[in-house]
Amino acid sequence: MLTVERNRPMASSISPIKDNSIYTVRNFNLWYGADHALNDICMDIPTNKVTAIIGPSGCGKSTYIKALNRMVELVPSVKMTGSIDYNGQNIFNPKFKVEELRTSVGMVFQKPNPFPKSIYENVVYGPKIHGIKKKQILDEVVEKSLKGAALWDEVKDRLHENAFGLSGGQQQRLCIARCLAIEPDVILMDEPTSALDPISTLKVEELVQSLKKEYSIVIVTHNMQQAARISDNTAFFLNGEVIEYNKTDQIFSNPTDKRTEDYITGRFG
Amino acid sequence: MVAREQFQLDLKDMKEEIIQLAKYTEAALVSAVDALYNQDMALAEQIIEKDKDIDKKELDINNKAILLIAKQQPVAKDLRRLIIALKITTDLERMGDHAKNIANATIELGEHHLLTVHPAVRDMRDIAIEMVKVAVNAIRYEDISVAGKLSGMDDSMDNLYETIIREMLEETATNPEKVQYVMQMAFSARYIERFADHITNIGENILFLVKGESYNLN
Fold first, then answer.
1. Is the pLDDT of residue B59 over 50?
2. Is A162 helix (H, G, I), strand (E, B) or coil?
3. 3-state secondary structure B98-160
4. Which helix H or strand E contains A28, and what residues bound it?
5. Is A136 within 8 Å of chain B by CB?
6. Residue-level pLDDT at A7
7. What residues does the PhoU domain cover (chain B) (predicted)?
8. A80-138 tens-digit pLDDT
9. For residue A13, which of A93, A63, A82 has the smallest C-alpha distance?
10. Which residues in chain B have Cβ-Cβ distances shorter than 8 Å to A252?
11. Which superfamily is assigned to A47-59+99-264 in CATH?
């Protein structure tokens, strides 16, 4: 059972296992202008686990994972307080280099967004930016990343064809391969299967399961069955607060908070 | 609008059907013990016939529960509601079988058997009927305090059963020619005792529904 602590009354300050956390989030608040989008979040994200974020639309889950790689600060009028430590370093510290964070933390979005280039060029895009030029090394990166994304067998004979020729599910796995090519520690996924057909969805889900051996994964999903199937821990967000954060088995069998129960059983949302 | 309104209505209907089935089994036991005391062969035959309705009702509820699981993909308490629906209806069907077994014993004993039915068999029946009522309330209100009462009632049932069996065995010692009748009577007491065990299973299921953990009331 994950430990739950409350730093102060009414705070959604929930913390899981203390050790082996890649992220430590403490009293994190975020405002879009006057809108208090995230309210006093305290939440550790364990290493080499799949952490699912669930909650109704507008509850702050996408904002939260965009805060984890500082993408959220691209939005005008954002204000933040509290801390998000990545491997023990506060990512909002002025000395912290956002480029290093983006190298360590990959992101996969709702809609597959391959570049208008070949499959090969999509995968090597990141490594090339990081200065890798040797063809032999790039070839190895492509094969390793595409194998990691369970796409290699399907595309190995047409690596130099345009990525737009792939199916939606293949494009999404290509985006995951592109993410793997920079060898991140964390993969953030924002509803990665919501635009995919059921078979492609299952392939991505199986992929997530296999990837957690090497990566820490945070996945935002509207599909509660998906969260139940693939995640180790689940956080339920509501109105910008973490209502309950616990082992996924516990959340989906016997949640402690009535609001969690009402949401997962479809009483609202 | 309440989300998943139809699903909530389906769950409510299912609960009512389970309660109805519980009342059928209660009526079956009352009739079965009446038939036993009154040597009423016609009533015994009716009970055996009506047991088919209980069996059919069990299958209906099970099919509905399976369909709801498939269509609604419930989780947490909703999932437990459907899982226990499957288990409770199985218990209720077995309770119906025990009433039928008493009816069969009545027929086996015949109209002019040499044995007076032990008066405490009625007491066993009364406890069992009271237990059904408690279980129905536990199901209706999902009330664990009510469900918890079944354990003590089952203990009373077990004590009564042991007393009856002991006294019946003593009777066979003094009247060995009655042994085949005593056997049928002892079986009947045993069927009521087993009937009650199934009711405690129902109580355990209600505890599981509310708490999400397994309990043993037997």
1. yes
2. strand
3. HHHHHHHHHHHHCCCCCCCCCCHHHHHHHHHHHHHHHHHHHHHHCCHHHHHHHHHHHHHHHHH
4. strand A21-32
5. no
6. 34
7. 18-105, 121-206
8. 999 999 999 999 999 999 988 988 999 999 999 999 999 999 999 999 998 999 999 99
9. A82
10. 75-76
11. P-loop containing nucleotide triphosphate hydrolases (3.40.50.300)
Give Cα A257 distance to the centre of its chain: 24
Q: Where are the domains of chain B?
A: 5-211
| Residues in chain A within 8 Å Cβ distance of B76 | 252-255, 261, 264-265
B3, A261: Cβ pair inside 8 Å? no
User: For B97-122, how does the pLDDT look when each residue is reduced to its tens digit (9 = 90+)?
Assistant: 999 999 999 999 887 666 788 899 99
CB contact under 8 A, B4 and A265: yes
Q: Has residue A12 got a pLDDT over 80?
A: no
Tell if the CB–CB gap between A255 and B3 is shorter than 8 Å. Answer: no
Each domain of chain A, given as residue ranges in start order, spans 47-59+99-264
Reported ipTM: the value is 0.74
Question: Is the separation of the CB atoms in A195 and A216 below 8 Å?
Answer: no
- What angle is formed at CA B130 by the lines to CA B128 and CA B133, rounded to 5 degrees? 115
Mutation for testing the B interface, residue in A265, A267, A268 having most B CBs under 10 Å: A265
SS3 B186: helix
A255 pLDDT exceeds 60?
yes
Q: Which long-range contacts (CB under 8 A, 24 or more apart) does B196-199 make?
A: B196/B124, B196/B127, B196/B128, B196/B131, B196/B153, B196/B154, B196/B157, B197/B154, B198/B91, B198/B92, B198/B94, B198/B95, B198/B98, B199/B91, B199/B95, B199/B128, B199/B131, B199/B132, B199/B134, B199/B135, B199/B150, B199/B154
pLDDT surpasses 50 at A177: yes
- In the predicted structure, residue B212 carries a pLDDT above the cut 60: yes
Size of interface A-B (CB pairs under 8 A): 30
For the whole model, what pTM was predicted?
Answer: 0.83
